[in-house]
Each structure stands twice: as C-alpha cells, then as structure tokens.
Amino acid sequence: MPQIEEAQPKYLQIAHYIRDQILRGDLRAGDEVPSERQLAADWKVSRPTAARSLEALSHQGLVEKRQGSGTYVRSLEVNRRARELYGRARQTGKIYTPGEYAVITSAGWADAPAHVAEALGLARGGRVVQRRRVTNNQDGPITLSTSWFASDIGRRAPKLLEPERIQEGTLMYVEAMTGRTGSYAEDRMCARSATGEEAADLELDPGSAVLVVHHVVYDVQDRALEFSEATYPPHRWAFEQGYPLT
After folding, report:
1. For residue 148, which phi and psi values (nearest 5 degrees)?
2. Is the CB of residue 2 less than 8 Å from the CB of residue 41?
3. In this predicted structure, what is the pLDDT of residue 62?
4. Average pLDDT in the 111-138 region?
5. Structural domain containing residue 20
6. H or E, element range at 59
7. What are the b/e assignments for 186-197, b being 16+ CB within 10 Å?
8. What would the pLDDT profile of 17-65 be if each residue is shown by its tens digit?
9. With DSSP H G I counted as helix, E B as strand and the rest as coil, what are the percentages for the chain, rounded to 5?
10. pLDDT (0 to 100) of residue 92
C-alpha cells in the first residue's frame, strides 16, 4: 500500500490514488471503491480523512455515494491520456482496458515534420519511424494518435515498423529493446478545429472542435524518447492533478 507523503494533504493523496485507478481503467463504471473504514486502515489515517478523500472524488464527478450501500465509480466518458495508459501498462502489461482496442492505420519510415524534429532533437527532415493508430471502444473511435521515434530507435525496435498492435504498448516495448527508460514526460494541449482527416477518423462532423495533446517522453539522460500527438473528440473529460493555491 502506498505510503503517505507530506507534500500534499493526506486526503488528496488518497483521492488522487483512487482517481488514477479510475482513469487507468483499473476501477470501472459501477465498481465499488474502498469504504472509509478500509481506506483508514490501508492508509493509516483517521476516518474523517478517509471520508474527505471520498468527498473530493465525488466533487470531481468520479464517484457517487449510494445510501446504505457504498461509494461507486460513476459512468462517464474520460479521455485516457498517455500518463494513464503508461500507468496501466506498467501495472498490468496491457495498455487498454477491456472493450478498448487500437487499429494501426499506418507504420513505417517518414521524413520528420518540423515540429517532430524539434521535439525529438533531430535535424529538420531527418528520417523517423511513424506509427498512427485509432483507438476505439464499443461506441466507436475515441482517440486518434501518432507516435514518432528517431531512426536509431526504429532500427533497434523493428515492431514499430509493423502495422500490428504491440500488446504492452510502444513505450514499454521501446524500453525493452533499447535499454532506455522513460523518466518523465511533458504535455502541451490546445483546442482547435479537426482537420478533414481527423474528422473522418474520429467520425466527427467537419470542423468539429477537438483536444490535441503533444506529448514528449524523456529518458533518464533527458534525451527525447518518443513524441506523440493525440487528438480527442469533444464531450470527453481530461483530468489533471489538483494543486495548492498557496
């Protein structure tokens, strides 16, 4: 069981831990979350602290309390961003939750666009490996994403060039094949109108608003390991960590 840190209030640490389980898909809609009593025992905190953590999750719209029964994960549409996908892959060996699957629409060598070359620290126009995928669930497409890797990674990780799913996820596969470990990542987000190709892949009306995330993973030597662009349809939530105002 995770240990309490002093960096942020104990109730928020508990709430964030459970929230991450929900966003990764480890806890799914309708699942019961631990009770106040169980949280107090597992985290070695008081019952009021445990109760406050569940209240925080309720205020975020992630859980609901049912009188005389318990607290359960609400049914809501959530964008699973890279940090949740990586967390699930490291914990379970599988990147997608039951009911989700990816279709690799293209994979191979390409000339790096300017923004990709800049993110990966490459010369403009250098050769990169590009993997493009559409992630779906039972309701249809939920994410369009493209990953780029430098040419030396492509040579050492040949599955990147194949239009087949990599069960454990591309990052964990690249780590295993290259010996380079992802250490931290940076995300930049914006909202804009979907391109024609994006609208077609995500089954949206032309010009629909989308959320776009540029995501760079760095290794322990601060070298860019992966650059990806993920495009999400509207009306799905993306969550960030809470933060203190003082």
Report:
1. -125, 140
2. no
3. 93
4. 94
5. 10-73
6. helix 47-59
7. eeeeeeeebeee
8. 999 899 888 898 999 999 999 999 999 999 999 999 999 999 988 999 9
9. 30, 30, 35
10. 84
